[in-house]
Amino acid sequence: MDYRIVKTEPMKAFGLEGIVSTVEDGKSYSHVGAIWDDNFGNGKYDKLIEDAGEIKPNGYDAMFVRDDMCKVHGLLNYYPIDDTTYGYMQFSFVAPESKTDSYKIVELPAATWAVFPQPVGKSDEPWKVWSVLYQNFNAWVETSEFEKSELELEIYGGTPGDLYCELWVSVVRKA
Q1: For 136-150, what is each residue's pLDDT tens digit?
Q2: Sheet harboring 104-108: ordered strands across?
Q3: What are 103-139's pLDDT values in tens digits?
Q4: Which residues have a Cβ under 8 Å from the Cβ of 170 and sit 6 or more positions away?
């Protein structure tokens, strides 16, 4: 199984927040893709890219193995809600030239991450990619020296014809 362990210093993320519910509640998004669709449609995604600036958080070169990383990613489980809902943020890393005034800012603590890369190609069904990545993580964690912590990142990169993503799961050593 292809993975790597990455350690990061504290970082800041900023972006567009949505609440996802795993049960129909009439107030929350029904799935993560709906947040992306909404923000694509209303222009907020493009504004986030513009406000991101050049993304080079501390440790950037050690974090990523590819040069073609996107400016916007996904952040999950950054604050507790309840058993059926979770916070999700389309985010960019805060850089010196980022314009963060109208966005939610989240402080990401120093962490150890299990990183699972996945080429996507031209997939029209990205949820299948994430399903595979989570299956890989769950199989890996059973035999590894780590267990899942809280945070998860969806990191995106590539080009329209050669999409690429990585699942980043914060982990701690098993007791």
Answers
A1: 888 898 999 999 998
A2: 4-8, 111-121, 162-173, 146-159, 73-76, 85-93, 11-21, 104-108
A3: 999 999 999 999 988 777 655 555 566 777 778 888 8
A4: 111, 112, 113, 148, 149, 150, 151, 152
Helices (H) and strands (E) in the chain, counts: 4, 8
| Domain spans, the chain | 4-173
Give strand pairing partners of 15: 91, 104
Give me 77's structure tokens: 């489980």
At 136, list the tokens: 């890989």
What is the fold, at CATH topology level, of the domain defined by 4-173? Multidrug-efflux Transporter 1 Regulator Bmrr; Chain A (3.20.80)
Do 153 and 114 touch, CB atoms closer than 8 A? no
**Can you tell me the distance from the alpha carbon of 46 to that of 48, in angstroms, rounded to the nearest whole number?**
5
